[in-house]
Amino acid sequence: MKDKLIAVWLLSLLCIPLLSFYGRPLQLTIIKQFSTEILTLYLGVTLSVVLVVFLVTLVRSGLDPYCYHLIWVAALSLILYAHLPFVEKIHVALFGMFGFLSQKIFEQKMAVLFCVAVAGLDELLQHFLVARVGDWRDVWLNLFSASLGMLLAFLLFGSRNSQPAWSPDQ
């Protein structure tokens, strides 16, 4: 199981620079095939599933004090998501998954280090690409998205070296 998680984590890590290089042409191709309303709906459904998992985690935790943060995090995530342009909504999905997998595989300090490094290096790479622009706002969006993924993983599974935050028999 851990080997599969590491393989998916490496794939998500590889997707980040690949989308820096080929993201804009890929986005234009996808937008030509599907309307932005449909794509936004798909990403919205994905975010809704994540929020439902947040709520289920809150209920199953027996109202663990850490889980109270889910209330404001979920509200902030919805507000952020609703006001982002479509091309930026991809950050939430990609870096959210990267943060989730990093938290699941590595110790928390290492997971944070990976997320901060990848978020910054991705925008630094884009700064040197002709068709892209490195932007501090995107670094913060990447970090926020990775933090959401890490928080979800922490609440669902606890830290790597501790007991799960909840178990089905609670």
Q: Describe the sheet with the most strands.
A: none
**Strand and helix order:** HHHHHH
- The number of helices is 6
Helix fraction, binned, reads: over 70%
The overall pLDDT average reads 80
- The percentage of residues in β strands lies in under 5%
Total number of strands: 0
Structural class: mainly alpha
Describe this structure in words.
- This protein is an all-alpha fold and 170 residues long.
- The protein is globular.
- The C terminus is likely disordered.
- The protein has one domain.
- The longest helix has 32 residues.
- It has six helices and no strands.
- Helix 1 runs antiparallel to helix 4 and helix 1 packs parallel to helix 5.
Short summary:
The protein is mainly α and 170 residues long. Helix content is 79%, strand content 0%.
Name the descriptors:
mainly alpha, 170 residues, 0% strand, 6 helices
